[in-house]
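To: structure subgroup
Subject: Chain for Friday's discussion

All,

I'm putting the inputs and outputs inline so they're searchable in the archive.
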Amino acid sequence: METMYEKPVLTDGLSGGRSSASEENHDLEPIDKVAEKKLLLKCDLHVLPMISLLYMLAFIDRINIGNARIQGLEKDLNMTGNNYNIALFMFFIPYILFEVPSNIIIRKIAPSTWLSFIMVCWGIITVCMGVTKSYAGLVVCRFLLGFFEAGFVPGCIYLISMYYQRYELQWRVNIFFCSSVMSGAFSGLLAYALANMSGVGGYNGWRWIFIIEGLITIIAAVIAKFYVVDWPEKSKFLTSEERTMLLRRLREDVAEAKMDRMDKKSTRRVFGDWKIYTGTMMYFGVVVTGYSTSFFTPTILRQLGWTAVRAQVLSIPIYIVAAVVALFIAVCTDRLRHRYAFTMIGVVVATIGYVILLAQRSVPVGARYFAVYLITTGGYITQPVTLAWLSNNMGGHYKRSVSSAMQIGLGNCGGIVASNIYITNQQPTYPVGFGISLGMLWLCGLSCTIFFAGLWLENRKRDKGGRDYRYGLEKDELENLGDDHPRFRYGY
């Protein structure tokens, strides 16, 4: 005899609409829209500014080696061949391995404490990079930098996602992400200024790039302890009424898609979810472009025949344009409640840039410079959308925490790729570097297409009752399914 399951009225799990099945919210008055708008503004003013500033400093500390390179780093440390690529590579080993553990720790510790602590640590390491006397010392510092930076980005993405409904998230993620885009511009400007300190204290200009930027990071991290917000349940900037409203909005957004307990069954659901691995491949493919532009843009521009100083300065408008476009895309994708098409727009834009650079012997310098704009902008269109898109489709505290860390951690293997494909003896054309970056970009495009198709098919199956058998599970398991709950609907 077929078992009959009582099924609640279905709504789009991404719409933020009320559910007739949600017993907790069913009899409540509708949320006042004016109060809701004030709450969102208050969250924006408290959640985003400080962590965005910290991310800009984090990314500067990560990529300033590219600016130091053209200011004499390799010469002073007697680096030859692919030594520079190896130094880049060493950052990513601990960075990849420690992101998931860090996101589990931050769930237990106040984000303000954990994020400021690891930032002080990597600020100290950045200063050490400026005083190291050997190539071996640089490699060790890069390894430790990766270790301490590992938990920052996934921790921040996780923290942001706990304050906003899913179609409010992309705009906020892009604001956060654009701080890394602007770090490319600011890093070039700061490196230009600090290079003029060459000779001060007997240090070359590249050393002052690391020392000053590291000290800025340490000071900012100490201040951040008092300004980074904690989890909504314990946030000090919200009144009790605002906190109640915020938590209600988040419950209504995900309906019954909760995962607030990690047991054997939920662990299997998390680590066996195809969406997390597909989302990781999306990020992995596009992050090669992100790191390539960060690490090698100054070098590529200098190969166009410009001086080191001019290359630093001309890298600045590239990042400004990318940031403006990325913010515009964020508004569009949230308002249209769609992700897939925008990821593919970025892929196509960057592809045009790569094609130009692969044929650079046949095009003028101006066109090659324009190609760098296309590659950087295309990458920064797609990369933040892949982060928000996966987070949109994860239900529950723990699943969102682990998925964010896995996507960014494993996806940052793309940084290892980017570190090793721009071979010194192939400059200035870098055929392997540009060719592999283009191929990886289309790996991202393919993964996005698979993700889109899989979500669409799963929604159709749920609309037809294909997952209703899960209503027959034990109550404890049913209430801890995350996005596997049959009421949840995926967004694409």
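Points worth raising on Friday:
The CA atoms of residues 171 and 330 lie 5 Å apart.
The radius of gyration is 23 Å.

D.
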